[in-house]
Amino acid sequence: MIMAREGLIDLAATPYYHVISRCVRRAFLCGEDKYTGKNYNHRRQWVWDKIMLLSSVFAIDIAAYAIMSNHYHLVLKVDREKGLAWTQDEVIERWYRLYWLICIETP
User: Fold this and answer.
1) Is 100 within the bounds of a domain?
2) Average pLDDT, the chain
3) Is residue 4 situated within a structural domain?
4) Residue range of the domain that includes 21
5) In this structure, is residue 2 part of a structural domain?
6) How far apart, in whole angstroms, are the C-alpha atoms of residue 42 and residue 24?
7) Domain count of the chain?
């Protein structure tokens, strides 16, 4: 059942969250695609670099990760105190950096 994030995230209960993202239609994120024979291992570093960039924008630390052939797992730690310590200008600068990373630098 779909729930609003407000009901899923409860920092009073735990700051740690397990996140999964999967590819669809037999697409390969990394590894060797047995249908085409192509190897996509070079993408592992791309995925890791993007995860680290996004972590630097938000008050989220990467506690653990696994990048698999067609999906990845992350264990994230929300650093509530760090986020609350940001000034309004720091929040604006981070949103600008996020826009730049997604809209300008991503081909």
Assistant:
1) yes
2) 88
3) no
4) 10-104
5) no
6) 19
7) 1
Of 25, 17, 19, the C-alpha closest to 73 is 19
Nearest CA to 27 out of 19, 18, 36 is that of 36
**What token pair was written down for 83?**
């986020």
Strand locations in 1-107 (E)? 16-22, 60-67, 71-78
Tell me, yes or no, whether 1 lies in a domain: no
- Check residue 107 and give its pLDDT: 56
- In the chain, what are the helix, strand and coil shares in percent, each to the nearest 5? 40, 25, 35
Over residues 56-66, mean pLDDT: 95
What does the pLDDT read at residue 105?
67
Residue pair 75/66 in contact by the 8 Å Cβ criterion: no
Does 106 have pLDDT greater than 70? no
Residue with tokens 């730049």: 100
User: What is the per-residue pLDDT across 23-49, written as a single tens digit (0 to 9) for each?
Assistant: 888 777 888 888 888 888 999 999 999
